Every structure is written in structure tokens, then in C-alpha cells.
Amino acid sequence: MGVPTHIFIDTCIFEQAGFNVESAKLKPFRDALKELELTFLDPDPIFRERNRHLRNRVDAAIRSLEKIEKSLPVITSLDKWPKVSFFREYEIRRLINKSLANFLKPMKHIKLGYDGIDMHRLMTWYEQGRAPFGKGKKSKEFPDALAIAILDRYAQSSNCEIAVVSTDTDFERACAERINLLYFPSLAAYLQVLQKESERVRIVQSWFEETPDAFDEWVATAFAEIDFEIEEGWDGELTDPELDELNISDFYVVAVADRECTVSFEAEINFSIYAEYEDEDDYEYDYEDEPSGHPRKEESKYSTAYTTVLSKIKLNESASKVEEIIYIDLDISSTSVSVSSGW
User: Do 317 and 219 belong together in one domain?
Assistant: First the structure.
């Protein structure tokens, strides 16, 4: 049994990347597709779910644009600012749908319906609490259950294995109970398994296990280049960010070349930053209820940011050991820091 070439990608994978195919979560997989011959399986309940999530994203974006217009009406005078709500919504939907279609295009796309689904069997899963059903809210996971049933039937009728890519633990549990469904927590994990025969993967993984702090300086330098904003919206400035602690998880080798490897990992960045700001909670007001003072504070604040990271690793001439990190890219352009002390 080799690595499955039939693949199912859950909605949550696209959702976590903001449906941005250029994001660090999706780009390595998209770039690898030109060398792969994959079949993308698209069960109808997940197809509907993906479209619903896309609509919700677009609706949220439209509301944000309308909020900007209300707070700054002059912005609508810009030549390229879309002034008709229907046109604006249509353009955003068209852009996202085209981007997603281009992402899926290199794969053979098979839409799967409900033909041959054994509802009696599905209800037995429900009564027994078998994955993806469970307790509490999980007792009503019918869309996911239908998707699992559809994939399970396709795998059996086509005599193939299916890679199920999802961060949903219900899909993980469901795959554990079904021979032909193989679970992957991310597209990066799937790509590494495709590379598993490569000695270079073992070398890079061993190097990271032995030097887990190898990325600290690189991440710190790249992180300092992003934009930092005061979460409360108060007038002020954030400067001199410093990385205090970097926690790395989900480290995978997602591409292998002659003397280079591309790795992907999730980063939890704990940092401190110097904040100079007007504390609006401490404003003093005159008899007309207008602020009469602008008390400023200067202090260090501590916060945490999360991002996906892509990095290029260079090997030595004989490709027998890691030589150096040569590139890094953080999938984050800005982060907000709370300066309010709260209660």
C-alpha cells in the first residue's frame, strides 16, 4: 500500500488559510501538484459546506467595507472603490471562486453524490455513537457522517485508499475505524509522506530534533518586520519587538530538491514590545464631558502571535547533513497587541 493518490480536503483546511491559495498552508501543495497525479474527491455535503463558508467570508468582507464607508465616507470618492453593493459582492465572489478553481485544476476533480449510500448503516453509526458521531453537539454531525459514508463507499467500490486531510478530530476518529481512509492533519503532512523515501527528509527531521532553536533568530528577524497595532485602537506606537520564546509544532518536510529542502511548521511566538500610548481609560473630562487630559504611558507589553512558517534548508555538497537555513517566510503581515491592563 503506497501513499494515496485520491485525496479529500476538508473545508477547515481552506478556512484556516482564509481561502488564500498563496498562503503558507496551501502554496507548497499547490506548487507540488504539477509533479503529482492526484484525484480530488468532493462529496456533495462538503462541497455545499465549502460554498457556504465562502459566502460567509464574503458577507463578512462586505460588512467590513460598509463599516469603513460609514466611518470614512470620503473613501467612496476613490476611482477604484466599488460603489454598488451587488457589484462589489459579485467581484469578491468571482475572485475567490476563480482562485479556488485554479487551485483544484491540476487534479482530476470528482464530485460525489449520495447514490448507493446505506442510510440504515448511517443510522446505526448514529445510534452507536460511531465517528464522526459522538456525544453532545457531535451527536448530530450528519454532514460529516454523510461525507465519510460517501468516501468509504467510493474507496470500497474503486478499491483504493483515500487521503483524508482535516484538522477535525472527528474525521481522524472516523479514519481510524476504516481501512481505506488514511488521515492526515495537514497538506504539509501529506506532502512529507510523499517524500518519505528520501534520505534528505530523515536528515532534516533529525537536524531539527537536535537543534530545535535553529529558527529562533530567523523568526525573530522576520517577525520584527511585520506591522504591530494597538488592539484597543488607542493613539500610540508599538516599537522594538523582541522574541521571548518560540514554540514550534507540526514540523514537516514538504519539498525536496538536490541540495535544498522546504519545510513547513506552525509557530507560537511569545514576544515583548515597547508601547507608548494614550490610555483612554485614564482620561479626565471637563464639565462638557470632553477629555481634558491625554495621559500617555510608556511600558513593555507581552503578547503571543501564531503563524504558519515556510523555510528553505540547504544541505552540504554530499547532501548528508544540513548546512544552513537560507530563507524563511512568515504567513502573517500584522498582529495586534492589547495595552489595556483590564480588571
Answer: yes
DSSP symbol at 117: -
pTM of the model: 0.72
Closest CA to 265 of 152, 188, 160, 324: 188
For residue 132, say if its preceding peptide bond is cis, omega within 30 degrees of 0: yes
Which of 140, 158, 192 delimits the end of a domain?
192
Query: What gap in Å lies between CA 8 and CA 51, rounded to an integer?
Result: 16
Say whether both 201 and 182 belong to one domain: no
Note the pLDDT tens digit of each residue in 235-247. Answer: 889 999 999 999 9
| Residue 209 and residue 173 share a domain | no
CB 225 within 8 A of CB 291: no
Residues 82 and 187 in one domain: yes
Strands lying side by side in the sheet with 39-43? 108-112, 39-43, 6-9, 162-165, 181-184
Q: Are 120 and 204 part of one and the same domain?
A: no
Burial class (CB in 10 A: 0-12, 13-18, 19+), 136: exposed
Please say which residue of 192, 208, 241 terminates a domain.
192
Give the pLDDT confidence of 103-152 residue by residue, as tens digits. 999 999 999 998 877 777 766 766 666 655 655 554 455 778 889 999 99
Nearest CA to 103 out of 18, 29, 195 is that of: 29
Q: Which of 332, 142, 134, 73 lies closest to 219, judged by CA?
A: 332
